[in-house]
Specification:
This protein is mainly α and 65 residues long.
């Protein structure tokens, strides 16, 4: 088995494991609520901070000649 073939097989195994995990989480109401709460916790503060940083940077760059 060549290295390229081994990488392709490994990628397929990881992708199928990810899809199976996503299926289990989305079909189980308890796990779905837990996943969505974690997503809100993870994305909650990061998106406004990112937008504020980008707005500040754009404001500073717009003042340059």
């Amino acid at each position: 088995m060549t290295e390229a073939h081994a990488r392709m097989v490994a990628n397929l195994v990881l992708a199928s494991a990810g899809l199976a995990a996503a299926y289990v989480v989305m079909t189980s109401p308890r796990l779905r609520r837990l996943a969505l709460a974690g997503l809100r916790l993870w994305l909650g503060p990061s998106i406004p901070v990112y937008l504020a940083t980008e707005a500040r940077r754009a404001w500073a760059e717009s003042a340059r000649p």
